[in-house]
Amino acid sequence: MRIVIADDHHLTRTGLRAALSSVGDVEVVGEAANGADALEMVSQHQPDALILDIEMPRLSGTEVARRLRASGASVKILALSAYDEPEYVYGLLDAGASGYLMKEEADSVMVLDALRGIVNEDEVWISPRLATDLVRRRAMSSRARRETLTDRELEVLQYVANGLDNKGVGEALYISRHTVRNHVERIKSKIDVRTRAELIAWAWHNDLMKSG
Q1: What is the dihedral sign for C-alpha 6, 9, 12, 13?
Q2: Out of 120-129, 170-179, 180-189, which region has the weakest mean confidence (pLDDT)?
Q3: Which of 128, 2, 16 is nearest to 76 (CA)?
Q4: What is the Cα–Cα distance from 16 to 83, expressed in whole angstroms?
Q5: 78 near 99, Cβ under 8 Å?
Q6: What domains lie within the chain, and their CATH numbers?
Q7: Is 35 within 8 Å of 78 (Cβ atoms)?
Q8: CA distances from 149 to 14, 51, 144, 203, 208 (A)
Q9: What digits encode the pLDDT tens for the residues 112-130?
Q10: What is the per-residue burial (b if ≥16 Cβ within 10 Å, else e) of 170-186?
Q11: pLDDT in tens, 26-75
């Protein structure tokens, strides 16, 4: 497995190279201290994977990932970062990264497991602590959105989740189809979904189906 390491901290690159080079099936073929050089190293060496920091001079890790994906490069990207905010994580994954590890918990064993996972198994790897935190934040966000719904909106949502169209919901609640449609649009706006299918999925995920 051929690896390029891109990080603007020399000690980080040196430590990763030493740890990975001691593994028989791993070869570190290049290093880069900035985003532009990372692109050059990938183009020159055609590695299987790129270990990529987020905050680097000249080009950020997110921009490097975005450009590699746009170019059609086959290299797998493993982000190694000190940032745990969702916007960084999802930004890198959306840009084309296959994994995201936190520097504070990513020892050589975890990095190697992640590299093998994304290269050999085509898996997505996330740091355990980070994955737990993202799930917790998502759950908190979901609860907060639910609390913004009025009692009437919850009633409408429950009927929608059980498969009724706007006419059916209106008949069940003795309100007009137009009123139901307005409720549905407000609900979608409050919980940040765009389609009725997403609305129903959100309701099911949050156990809002109407029983009986």
Answers
A1: positive
A2: 120-129
A3: 2
A4: 18
A5: yes
A6: 2-131 (3.40.50.2300), 144-205 (1.10.10.10)
A7: no
A8: 53, 43, 9, 12, 12
A9: 888 988 888 777 788 777 7
A10: bebbebeeeebeebbeb
A11: 999 999 999 999 999 999 999 999 999 998 999 999 999 999 999 999 99
CA distance 190 to 160: 16
Q: Are 189 and 157 in contact (CB under 8 A)?
A: no
Structure-block tokens of residue 199: 């609305």
Nearest alpha carbon to residue 179 among 62, 139, 192, 171: 171
Residue 169: other Cβ atoms inside 10 A: 23
Q: What is the largest CA-CA distance in the chain?
A: 72
Give the separation between CA 191 and CA 197, rounded to whole angstroms: 13
Tokens 């299918």 belong to 197
- Specify the length of the chain in residues: 212
Rounded CA gap, 2 and 61, in Å?
19
- Alpha-carbon gap, residue 62 to 87, rounded angstroms: 11
Going by C-alpha positions, the residue among 2, 71, 63 that lies closest to residue 38 is 63
Collapse the DSSP code of 13 into the 3-class scheme (helix H, G, I; strand E, B; otherwise coil) and give the result: helix
Q: Packing angle between helix 128-147 and helix 177-191, nearest 10 degrees?
A: 150
Residue 144: which residues within 8 A CB-CB, separation 6 or more? none
Q: Which two tokens stand for residue 191?
A: 């919980």
* Exposed / middle / buried, residue 69 (Cβ in 10 Å: 0-12, 13-18, 19+): middle
